[in-house]
Amino acid sequence: MASVSSQKISLLFHRTRLKSRYILSILVGLALGFILSLACVPLMNICDTSLSILSGPFSLSLNFHIKNGNSSLRDKFDPFRILNRQARSIADITLVDYGSKDYEPKINPSQQQQVPIKSNHNNSKVTTTTTHVSNVAKILRPRFMADELGIREKVLVAVLTETNHLNTFALFLNQTLSDHVNRILFFIDEVRQDFPKDMQVIAINDKRSYLKPFYVLKYLVEKTIKSYDWFFLVPDNTYIRGFKLNEFLNHISINQDLYMGQAFDDIHAVYCYFGSGIILSRTVLQKIYTELDWCTKNAYSQDLTDNIGRCILKAAKLPCTNLASNYKFNAYVNYRFEYDTDISEVSKSKDFNQTLTIHPINDLETMLKLQKYFNEVEINEMSQDILKYEETIENLSCYATEGCGNIPWPVGVPAPFKPSTRFDVLRWDYFNETHIYLKTDNTVIDLMKQNDYEDIQEVIDHSVKQFQTKYGTKLKFKNLLNGYRQFDPTRGTHYIIDIVLIDEQKKEYIKRAELMRPLGLVEIVPMPFTTETVKLFLILPIHSDEQSAAIRFLHHINKTLFDRETRDKFEVLLTHIVTTKQEYAQTQKWFETIRTQVDLIHQTHPQLTITYHTLRLPSSSSIPLYSQPIYLLDFFQTKLRTNSLIFLTNPYVNIDSDFFNRCRLNVIENTQIFFPIAFYQYHPYIIERTYHIKDNSTIDLHKLNGWFNSYTYDHIGLYMTDYLNLKKLISYHNITISTSNLYDLFIQLTDIHILHAPDHSLRVHYRSIKCDSTIQTNSIEYNRCLMQQEKGLASHSQLAMVIIENEQTQKKNK
After folding, report:
1. What is the tens place of the pLDDT at every residue in 503-546?
2. Cβ–Cβ contacts within 10 Å for residue 777, how many?
3. Where do the TM regions start and end (predicted)?
């Protein structure tokens, strides 16, 4: 027993000794880790120099002061400093773009400063208080993204011209260059008001012609330098190839100082000849502006080339160059150039066909001839490029998955649209030389309009020329046998035509041609800016027999519109249309029922403005309905401001809540008028009989309930200024308004854009349409009225069901 107990005691002692060793090693490891962490803290100071502030008794116990130094050891050996380290913001990082400083992003951070307020040094502790003062300035961002990113337009052309050349040389340059450059400015010597339309003319009130270029340069720097990359200075007697100039500048890098043109006299000259044009970069123009005073004082020569060149040499230290980015500026200068005698010789020169400018041109006729010649040169160059591209595409098609020869025709045009469902299948229109068949779902045959006729005739003429080229000129066109046309939104208009050709022996040949008119470049049409805050005046004409319809109209818009509209944005003008003195005398009594309804509306919507008016027409028999909007606008032109937004409608319409905001956006003063196409209800009896729909108070947008009536123009949105401008043209052309439609007058007399499109928010209740003798004087309106009578009753399927049911009823009765 004694031996056993002694063994247990020795084993226990051995385990205790091992345990104490483990504890000792753990303590040594913790001590070494703590010491190493303190040693690494100064290295972390490289990454972050900000001081952490520890609060509380724990931090105070670590604060001890070294009397011989200005800083505490805590500032260097605080192990908890990394826990309180502030995160670094993007404002602390400097971005450097070594490629191009022009596109270096600029960051506007909020400014924060740390201001020490108080610092007390005691024997055992240090107390530091830091206050963050935030001076955050509001950053005003530009309206457009291009302004913020510094994106500029390509080129501005500054033309030095004379007053007597505004209608000749200057007008020609404006018409031929406007499609190829971003802006053209014409500088003259005196103020003129009678210059051609669409020309931007700046007058320089200084008769010293040798200083004129410096006025131009000063104007360009102060007014336009932020908007353009290149500036092209040229006199008005220089012919400019706008297409070639734009193509040339597209290949030149904007990240350089450039003074480009044709060297004066010889290739060793340092001045560019002003007559052939001078291209300046934006950076060079900025440098010139700083030396304009020196330039004007040293402009002692009457030669503009010398004055401009001396100024640029002083300001930018640049000589003239005709080469940039491996592209050469070509100019043709010949003071004895005569087009009729010299063009046959110079046209053989490659340099002449690649030239950008020709100087001098002494008459406008020569400029027109040069324009025609270079148009043909550019067309030939494009045709050759197209052939090269087609050949390249055909060669590369062998490497595609489809294999050789499986590219869509014509080469280079996107593949045809592939419909995913049967509802996406594109329509083919069948046509002959005068009519188009099945153009819409509601028509079987339509007479060709002028634009359709010109389109198809051009296709036929081109096909006949191709057949004559292939089979000989003896074949002549006789007639069109069949024609098919399809518009593909991904590629263009596709034509397949069968034409009959006849030779000298009167023998006929039927040939089929397949043609494609590809889509061109998509252009964004600039439109003026409009908002939804414009006040709208709703003019509601009410005839004496339409009182119940007007009350129903007020009931409906009280539910849908009045909650959204306010007094400063909306006003209703209830207008009683009368034709006799008796009706005019009873108009106040006639309005009593409507006033009662309006008073009920004012109880729930007191912010609305509803006014009452009476318009007396000369005679009900002489003024048809389609002419009455003109009399209404005449009546209100003295009651409303000229910039008032107006919407005319009829009391049978239901208007949804979102329509008026859309009207405010679609009507643009002096630019666009809105004629919405409303959804007109079919006859309620037929709808109820065929589809058992008994509730006709609301009109559901469905093909069984109605149709979009494009033959009437009862709903009109326009500004009063547009009507007043039209009224001047009506009086000038001496047009009778009693038989005229407002829509037709805008089409015939003005070039204002008209938006005539379906709008699902306008739904009109059924009313019978009468085509009486009052509108037979206007054949166009009479035909429109007949079409409304024909299509406004019901759909073809509904009418067929009514006929079948009547026939079955008659058989049963027999």
Report:
1. 988 999 999 999 999 988 777 777 787 888 899 999 999 998 89
2. 13
3. 21-44
| Alpha-carbon distances of 809 from 399, 686, 802, 813, rounded to whole Å | 71, 16, 10, 6
- State the angle between helix axes of 796-813 and 684-691 in degrees (0 to 180), rounded to the nearest 10: 70
**How does residue 621 score in pLDDT terms, banded at 50, 70 and 90?**
low
Q: Domains along the chain?
A: 148-331 (3.90.550.50), 429-518 (3.10.450.10), 536-800 (3.90.550.10)
Distance (Å) of CA 51 to CA 36, 113, 129, 699: 21, 14, 12, 74
- Cα 325 to its chain centre, rounded Å, is 33
Distance between CA atoms of 675 and 644, rounded to whole angstroms? 17
DSSP helix/strand/coil, 314? helix
pLDDT at 581 (0 to 100):
86
d(CA 811, CA 814): 5
Tell me the C-alpha to C-alpha distance, in Å, between residue 66 and each of 120, 121, 124.
14, 11, 9
And the tokens for 133? Answer: 């003062």
Instruction: Band the pLDDT of 236: cuts 50, 70, 90.
Output: very high
C-alpha dist (Å) from residue 154 to 198, 232, 249, 251: 20, 11, 8, 11
Q: How far apart are CA 447 and CA 434, in angstroms?
A: 6
Q: What is the pLDDT of residues 423-466, one digit of tens each?
A: 889 999 999 999 999 887 777 888 999 999 999 999 999 999 99
Q: Which residue has the tokens 């931090």?
A: 59
| pLDDT confidence tier of residue 131, bands split at 50, 70 and 90 | very low
Written as six digits, the tokens of 732 are 């000038």
Q: Quick one: average pLDDT of 572-588?
A: 89
Total count of residues recorded for the chain? 814
What is the phi/psi pair of residue 283, to 5°?
-70, -40
pLDDT of residue 9: 39
Rounded distance between C-alpha atoms, residue 313 and residue 641, angstroms = 58
State the CB neighbour count (10 A cutoff) for residue 763: 22
Query: Residue 276: which of 307, 322, 243, 234 has the closest Cα?
Result: 234
Q: How far is CA 484 from the centre of its chain?
A: 34
pLDDT cut 90: percent of the chain above it: 47
Which of 481, 537, 477, 535 shows the shortest CA–CA distance to 512? 481
Question: Phi and psi for 476 in degrees, rounded to 5?
Answer: -120, 150
DSSP 171-227: HHHHHHHTTTSSEEEEEESS--S-PPTT-EEEE-----GGGHHHHHHHHHHHHTTTT
pLDDT digit string, tens, across residues 366-389: 999 999 999 999 999 999 998 999
User: What is the DSSP pairing of strand 357-359 with strand 331-333?
Assistant: parallel
Q: What angle do CA 747, 179, 755 make, to 5 degrees?
A: 25
Pairing of β 672-674 and β 753-755: parallel
**646 forms bridges with which residues in the sheet?**
537, 718
